[in-house]
Design a protein that fits this description.
- With about 475 residues, the chain is an alpha/beta fold.
- The chain is built from 15 helices and 19 strands.
- It has helices at about 55-60, 65-80, 85-105, 140-145, 150-155, 170-190, 205-220, 235-245, 270-280, 305-315, 335-345, 355-365, 380-390, 430-440, 470-475; strands at about 5, 20, 105-110, 110, 160-165, 190-200, 225-230, 250-255, 265, 290-295, 320, 325, 350, 370-375, 395-400, 410-415, 420-425, 455-460, 465.
Amino acid sequence: MPRYTKKPTKPGISGRPVKRTSSTRRPLSSAPKKQSVYSPGPTTKAPSRKKLTARGSYARANTLSGKLNLWFKVLRALSIKYRGWFISGLIALGVLIMTLVFFLFFFKDGKVTFGGPEPSPTASSGLTEADDPFLSSYTAEELAGLEGTDSELLEDEKEAIGVFIGSVDASDELMLRKLDDAIDSEYANNTVSGIYKYYSNSDTPGDFNAQIQGIRSLANKDVKSVVICIKDVDEYTAIVKMAKSANMNVVAVDAPTDYGYDINIMTDDNDFGVSVGDYIGNNLSGRSNVAEFINTSEDADNSTRLTALNAELAKYSSLNILSAVDVGSGKSISSGMSNLLDQATIEAIYTDYGLAADVLNDCIERQSLPKVFVGDATAKFIKLWYTLMTDGVEIEVKVDPEDRDSETIKKTVSGEGMQVYVRPTPEGAAATALKFAIRLAEGKTLKTDMLTENKVFFYTGNGAVTNAVLTYYYNLVK
């Protein structure tokens, strides 16, 4: 069995195990070695080699990628050999490119422009009318921002209006009262900064001179609109000429001429009279009586509307116009109503300006309501009418009408079945003119389709309140 012993090693050198056997080494043989002899066999022709096409580095060198690769190698070799010159060239090229960009984009007219255009010493910040083609489309707040002003200041700017009143007669007093009410209303609504009134009287020439001075004063205050209520041709012409020379808008009321104004407000109730007549005729059937409570006093000025009304009623053969009750002559509504009821029943009632509420109240007290009620409407009338049509109006009646000492009982009168067509109390032609003047001063323009060829606006009452819209108007006046 073989044994393994550790071979001695030199110090510091590790040994490895060596296999030792008990067999002895064989001696070299003395017999001659066997020699191999070469004998050529039959010759055979070697197969011919196929000719190869050019491939490898030579083929790749002829392609685009190969050429680029070759040039890259050449440049790389040159950059290594001439490293210092190569880096200097790249730096010079970069500086040249940056210089070209600077002069192309940031240098104009001999000045550096990357900091923005220099503002003119006299120009305000922001856009101006001269260089802003869209200025008209800005809001007041945007304009305030451009101009550096506070928008609240712009909103608070109100226009002042001048009012010139000529010779006043009885027929103008009602118009002037309505004008004063309209002025108070505009002040209350804070729509104007001031309204300057100038009066003249044909009996006092000095008053007309005061109006001349008034026009000059308004021009100095930059007033843009004036209302002119002057019937005298000479006075009207002089005032209008001065107003126009100061570039003022002229709103005339019943102008004595057809020139000099931007708009002329004409008082004409013809349309209202026609519409009232049509309403009565279309809402009554069969033979019907119409009662008229009118005011023919000089300051009432209801003649145009009354004439148009009667002309329209005459077109309906079934309608009969009873004798009119003229309160302007001193006759009371109550006595007039009693006289009419003694003659016939009343199916329709027409009232002039300011009479509607008192006439309706008399009908309620009599418990005798007409089928159709037309005329002017005041807040007092609308409230009475609304109560009549909703809850009813409570009244006291005698148990025995013939007995003066008879006891009374309470009854509720209802307006069911009564058709009403009334016009709210108008502001009047002068009050309407004031509104036009304010709107023109604010820069608004007139709609041409609402004016005649002579720039006339007919102040009419063809808009009315009926049963269908009673609640709406009641909420306005309650």
